[in-house]
Amino acid sequence: MNFTGIDGKTVLVTGAGRGIGRAIALAFAAEGARVAVTARTRSELDSLVAEAESTPGSAVAFEADLAERSEIPKLVAAVTEKLGPVEILVNNAGLGSSSNPKPVADFDDDFWDLSLAINLTAPYLLSKVVLPGMIERGWGRILTVASINSKRPSLHGAAYAATKHGVMGFMRTLALETAAHGVTANSICPGPVATLMNDKRIEYDAARLGLSLEEHERAQTPVGGRLAPDDIAPMAVYLASDQARMITGQAYNVCGGVHMS
Fold it and tell me: pLDDT confidence of 99, banded at 50, 70, 90?
């Protein structure tokens, strides 16, 4: 099936410098979208922009630290000025448990606050900024890359699990409020994906369990091994397309069979 409704659209993808965000950004560019890509590392964004030149669409880089509330309206204003109003928002930027894994009794309070800011508050604020225009135009797509940990716990990852559970509730509420306005809001719930962030988690858990990295990675999914970022991107493109116009408030697992519900 050829997806329709994406060619020429303005898409904003957060956390696009590498991993899942990068794969999603390139997938939208391949469909002819004008993709605004944002992250904190300029070199990664510049590499992505160069790669997108070979696609029917394009990518434009915008540096931003989404942990800073004041940067979010500035980011959207800059994207709008350069590419036009955001029609598809992909909330992908996230902070994983691998950055500071600890049991709750010993959890780092500053890391808790930072996780809330990036994983939950940033998607809320970004959605809030772009939503009025989407409603006015009668068309919009808001996607959030959540996690299977929005549906299950994460050992030594209380902040990650809590924020991913929280963003799921936010997205479902958003879907309910916007369903009659031509706007859909959906989540994608990846399992373990081979990214730098997940590499650290694999290393932590392998050491904790006394396993080699290789044997622990092989056991990550019933299918075997970890997913690749490119395994996630097609779902994002589909949910933004005209073919998915009747899908909203959903949370799709792309997890190699880790969470079978």
Answer: confident
Bridge partners, 89 (sequence order): 12, 142
Known catalytic membership, residue 238: no
Whether the Cβ atoms of residue 33 and residue 57 lie closer than 8 Å to each other: yes
The three state secondary structure string of 214-260 is HHHHHCCCCCCCCECHHHCHHHHHHHHCHHHCCCCCCEEEECCCCCC
Handedness of CA 134, 81, 69, 15 (dihedral sign): positive
Catalytic one among 124, 160, 204, 252?
A: 160
Write down the pTM of the prediction. Answer: 0.96
Per-residue model confidence as pLDDT tens digits over 168-216:
999 999 999 999 999 999 999 999 999 988 988 989 898 999 999 999 9
Q: Up-side HSE of residue 114: CA atoms within 13 Å toward CB? A: 12
- Pick among 3.30.70.260, 3.30.70.890, 3.30.559.10, 3.40.50.720: CATH of 10-191+229-252: 3.40.50.720
Rounded distance, CA 155 to CA 101, Å? 8
Q: pLDDT tens digits, residue range 62-97?
A: 999 999 999 999 999 999 999 999 999 999 999 998
Sheet containing strand 140-145, strands side by side: 58-63, 34-39, 10-14, 88-91, 140-145, 183-190, 251-254
Q: Which amino acid is at 220?
A: Q
